[in-house]
TrEMBL record:
Binding residues for Zn(2+): 283, 288, 290, 296
EC annotation from Swiss-Prot or TrEMBL: 3.6.1.-
Signal peptide coordinates: none
NCBIfam families: ribosome small subunit-dependent GTPase A
Lineage: Bacteria, Pseudomonadati, Bacteroidota, Flavobacteriia, Flavobacteriales
CP-type G domain location: 99-260
Pfam families: RsgA_GTPase
Needed co-factor(s): Zn(2+)
Protein name in UniProt: Small ribosomal subunit biogenesis GTPase RsgA
Major site of localization recorded for this protein: cytoplasm
Source species: Flagellimonas lutimaris
Residues given in the record as GTP binding sites: 148-151, 202-210
Gene name in the database record: rsgA
Domain of life: Bacteria
PANTHER family: SMALL RIBOSOMAL SUBUNIT BIOGENESIS GTPASE RSGA
Length: 355
């Protein structure tokens, strides 16, 4: 398989030349587990580790390779390679690191499009769509909304749901599908662009795995099935988190992808809730929080029914979450800075032989 088949492009080749990486071979990270990587190259899928230098110069977790990354590699043994450097990333999807206040964790990189999957039955919730949209807008990933399980509802209900979504979410394509009846699947398949990388976002049970199996024509193992089988000590090498479809599209599906949910950027919110941002220009106070202020254009618009009330409430909720996240990040930076100072002082002491 050629590099192009799993997403390589002229732009990435230019980066390779710019960064003086032409002496190395190129691969794409397709799986990561505790700093053991699998890299897809033209020769096949190879086990990989990072060089000591890359580890030594890494300041944060973001400096380590992630699924989706293009990397400069060299072979050191049969089927084993060393990762020397990571190519600059086009897009990054990240989230709050679990159990680590204020730290981010990269879920996947270099994703072009995200399928925001929602089932039309119990899961249907436009607030949640807006949440995933904000993640896409934060990461510069283009969103496509997928309404799944349409076999469970009739056409009138579907038309109603579609218009509800489009009323609140403008300029994002919406595709209705069913993995059961196969309705809409062909249309979705045709919309997938060769050489572009996709990911699946959505709650548990909406049908992401079913869709992936459907699109790939294969029964791929579920990530949770894999972790339970490795627990039993079975050797699992067949699982890949980056899948190349027959029509040339590439899909990243890894365990972390399924836990993405926290909003952490102003830009992302501003794009998702563009209408609110536009209105806020007419608020009396520049720092209006649109909650209790007089002459607040946003509140006025909610009152008149022009602005959807649930969309407004969803915006406030995510805004609060974002603020909380930012304050924990700021706190952490302060702590790190203090720690850095301490290390420096210690090193100086050592140098002057006083330690
Ligand atoms: N009726 C109907 N059921 C579906 C459809 N697609 C998936 N399902 C069912 O919904 C359930 C959940 O589907 P999965 O594909 O496992 O959902 P998932 O999003 O991968 O879930 P997680 O792995 O927990 O993230 C399964 O029982 C599927 O058979 C559909 O189009 N119609
Ligand atoms: Zn206001």
């Amino acid at each position: 398989m050629k590099l192009e088949h799993f997403g390589y492009s002229d732009k990435i080749e230019k980066l390779r030349i710019q960064k003086n990486l032409t002496d190395f071979e190129v691969g794409r990270i397709i799986s990561e587990h505790k700093e053991r990587y699998i890299v897809k190259t033209e020769k096949g899928e190879l086990d990989a580790e990072i060089t000591g230098n890359l580890r030594y110069t890494a300041n944060t977790r973001e400096d380590f390779p992630a699924v989706g990354d293009w990397v400069a590699i060299s072979e050191y043994d049969d089927d084993k390679v060393l990762i020397h450097s990571i190519f600059p990333r086009k897009t990054i999807i990240e989230r709050h690191a679990v159990g680590k206040q204020g730290e981010k964790q990269i879920i996947a990189t270099n994703i072009d499009f995200a399928f925001i999957v929602q089932a039309v039955d119990r899961d249907f919730n436009i607030n949640r769509i807006e949440r995933y949209l904000t993640i896409c807008n934060t990461s510069n990933v283009k969103p496509i909304i997928i309404l799944n399980k349409i076999d469970l509802i009739n056409d009138t209900v579907l038309t109603d749901l579609m218009s509800k979504v489009q009323e609140r979410v403008k300029q994002v394509p919406v595709i209705a599908i069913s993995n059961e009846s196969q309705k809409g699947i062909e249309r979705l398949r045709k919309s997938i662009v060769k050489g572009k990388t996709y990911c699946l976002l959505g709650s548990s049970g909406v049908g992401k795995s079913s869709l992936l199996n459907n699109l790939s024509g294969k029964q791929l193992m579920k990530t949770n099935e894999i972790s339970s089988s490795t627990n039993k000590g079975r050797h699992v090498t067949s699982h890949r988190e980056l899948i190349v479809l027959e029509n040339g599209g590439i899909i990243i599906d890894n365990p972390g992808m399924r836990e993405v949910g926290i909003v952490n950027s102003t830009d992302g919110l501003d794009i998702t809730f563009e209408a609110i941002i536009e209105l806020s220009k007419d608020c009396k106070f520049k720092d209006c929080t649109h909650t209790t202020e007089v002459d607040c254009a946003v509140l006025k618009s909610v009152k008149s029914g022009e602005l959807d009330k649930s969309s407004y409430e969803n915006y406030l909720k995510m805004e609060r979450e974002k603020e909380h996240f930012e304050s924990t990040v700021a706190e952490k930076r302060k702590k790190d800075k203090n720690f850095g100072k301490m290390v420096k002082q210690f090193k100086n002491l050592k140098k002057s032989n006083r330690y």
